[in-house]
Amino acid sequence: MMPASNFPMSDSVRRAYKDGQEDEILLPLVLTDMMDKPVGRIKSGDSVIFYNIRGEREIELTRSLTENNFSEFPVSDGLDLNFATMIEYQKGLKAQVAFPPEETLHDTLSDIISSHNLRQAKITEAEKAVHVGFFFNGKKMELLPGEERIVVPTRKDVALFDEAPEMSIEKISAATVDKIHDSDCNFIVVNFPNVDVVGHIENEAAVIRAIEVVDKHTGIVIEAAQKEGMPVIVTADHGTVEKWFYPDGAVDTGHTDSPVPFILLHPDKKLALSKKGELTDVAPTVLKILGLKAPRLMTGSSLIEDTSFAPAKRLLLIILDGWGLNENVKVNLITRSRTPVMDNLIKNHPMAELDAAGEAVGLPEGTVGNSEAGHLHIGAGRKIFSDRLKIDWAIADNTFFDNDAFLSMMRKAKNAGRPLHLIGIVSFFSSHGSINHLFGLMDLAKKEGIKELYMHSMLGRRGEIPESGAQYIKKIEEKTISLKLGKVVSVIGRYWSMDREENWDRIEKTYRMLIYGEGTKVSGA
Length: 525
Hints:
Elements: H1 8-18, E1 29-32, E2 47-50, H2 59-66, E3 82-87, E4 96-99, H3 109-115, E5 120-125, H4 129-135, E6 147-152, H5 169-180, E7 187-192, H6 194-199, H7 204-227, E8 232-235, E9 260-265, E10 276-278, H8 282-289, E11 315-320, H9 333-336, H10 340-348, E12 351-355, H11 371-380, H12 387-396, H13 404-416, E13 420-425, H14 435-447, E14 453-459, H15 468-483, E15 487-493, H16 504-516, E16 520-523
């Protein structure tokens, strides 16, 4: 058992660092009382608010805590929680939603292509399936007429992808070439996820391997498309490893605010592109190449400078996930890698630089891009305000503190004399949530007269300085002291809590921490 301190959980996270652990894969830490028993476990009848946003990595844990007939691993019978989520993670979950989704988007790129009776295929591996399907299509999960989604299974034989930076790219590439040879398929979208996925791991050699294998397979699919006479667009959803270092030399494994490339390979060599644009300009450009009229809702503009050319019957769109542009070669792992294909494309074909972060993709000014916002804006062709921005606005205008879902959870807890639990990521930069949202909930709990308030925190150093998790946990502990309310009672790496590939052993570890208090004990006496 670890000794007590004024900041027990943040101190314990720092000790875990010394033992070789990192935020992302931090093993569970559990606060205990003077009798060495876990404090603040989630029990039947308690109220819980899962304050994460985005949602695709939050579904599995939510299911385990709320489904009556959950069967992926053993769970406690009759937990019967009052449960709320910040946004809707998935339709049908047994949870009250604080910020329900707006209507699904219509007249997206995929909608227009489908409405003209053209066939389209979206290809990636499971790691990015939700982005290439759900988000690209305007937050619609169902297939459109004429649409096919090819999802290559993500490998299960490695713990982290720095062990296999190639991931499943061979199969993605092969599936793409097969569709290129299918003359009835008019529009093909392929996402190569390696740079983004491996770029979140602090392993420079592995990242370089990921960059180089993406470059290689970009060349393979382009060659196949050109043999079929297809125009090709190469772009990205956001940056990652082109800013590998912070100014102080520490490694930055997060997303960036860099622009991304938009490269056009077209049989008409006279075509020219605007030099600057945004991700919202991709969809109108695709439609112009295919000879289709952009709908009124698409406020983006075609990047092709005005000129007449014959419409194409087919088009390949390649999304290099996480491939940003940065002229500072000292911090740019892409420029340190062997990328003959991309080097040739940039040198010999028209290219625009697209803004892919902050306000350009509906995020708060100055924030980095992410795959959700990137794919949503590529497919929508117009600016969509993010959940994070809408929640920030709600805090600013105080409507956050009148939210029916939050008040319902808190009043049920107060009236029943039960605790309130707040679960979620602790970060400012994460696309999955903000510590400011947690602080807003803590302030509301104080206002509503909650007597027992417990925080269960997830860490993950994506876009954060080294050992940032301990700093965030200390901020929460300081907040509990200033409010004279609440305790941080659980801390765990997001690797174990935020999965989307049915790695149920990871979710079970988080579940058993939350319900049974399994983990390294931290004295809070």
